[in-house]
Amino acid sequence: MLRTKILLGLAILIGSCQGFSTTFSTRSNYVVNSNVVKQEPNKKSLTLLTTTSTHQRSTTTKTGTSLSAVTIPPEVLTSFLPPILGFYRSEFGVSYAYGLATALSGVSILRRFSPATNTVLPMHAMALIFYGFRLNAFLAIRTLLSARLRAFIDKIEERAKARGNRLSRAPFIISCGFLYYGLAAPLFFTSQLTSEMMKPSWVLPFMKTLVGLEWFGFGIAAIGDFTKTFVKKTKGDDTLVTSGIFSLLRHPNYTGEMIGWTANSVCGLVGFTLLAKAATSRAALLKLIGNFIIQSLGLVGITFVLMQATTGLEKRQQEKYGDKPEYASWVKSSWGGWTLPAKKEMKAESKIELDESQIEEYGSGI
Predict the structure, then answer these.
(1) 84-95 pLDDT, tens per residue?
(2) Element holding 64 (H helix, E strand)
(3) What whole-number distance in Å separates Cα of residue 357 and Cα of residue 351?
(4) What's the DSSP call for residue 335?
(5) What is the reported pTM?
(6) 63/50 Cα distance (integer angstroms)
(7) Which residues does UniProt call coiled coil (predicted)?
(8) pLDDT one-digit tens code per residue, 278-307
(9) What whole-number distance in Å separates Cα of residue 264 and Cα of residue 209?
């Protein structure tokens, strides 16, 4: 699928930036020495000490050993472990894993950095935590309420199995992990800001405005999901939802997410700029640049996915309801959100892709 190819491409690009990514601490230290693994609970960083060989070439060759520290950011785990759900159910890798990775990354960063020295971080991290847990609660309720949706999910799983064994899903699952890591990357910047760095008078009000816009966008998505689920449950799955927030926005869940993720990334951009200005070494600057590239690719990836979903839903609604006066009136008085440019020549889509995309009728989930 086109979506799979895009995510795999982003995975390759983001993976090339991992060497520059900023590392963080956790609460325990593991030292690997020969064949012995020892845990030191009083340390505050996860450090793997590996033995490497160095060769000195002269008249004789001498072999020595040196220790190099490798740190593993907790956000690697919170971003890459949830997509493993996709091995169990294909659809879970882009639904429950999406929400879980987002929320856990926010929790991980919030609990390790002190909000006392950074008034932006708590609300920024809580926005991602709210989005992730809210999304998963919605997905669970939506699935319980809709027999048709459960049938769609079962059909997706059957066709995923027909395309290959569960292990064949690994490339796509890994690419999802890279995407979720990119979405959490802006928090890497805001979590490191100090009051000294935020002294310019414009910084704090501007960043608070961005975080407020992020909450606003995720709030719109939440209202849209709730409204669509309620209407379809009470009036039937084939009902065209035009009431409430849908009277203004035809796809508030996708539009809201795009607003939220864009504000999230711009907030990260401000943090990156301030940290880069205060960087004291070339290595520190390279780490910042690496994370900024990851953040940018994450925004590009989620924006493309959401625009693709919006474009597809617009097309299907037009085909399904286009001959109804109610639909024509609704289109004139509402905004469809951001969509992909119209293609001059539409390629024939596989039946699997069409069936999978219909799940978007029910609300959020990439």
Answers:
(1) 999 999 999 999
(2) strand 61-71
(3) 10
(4) B
(5) 0.78
(6) 16
(7) none
(8) 999 999 999 999 999 999 999 999 999 999
(9) 11
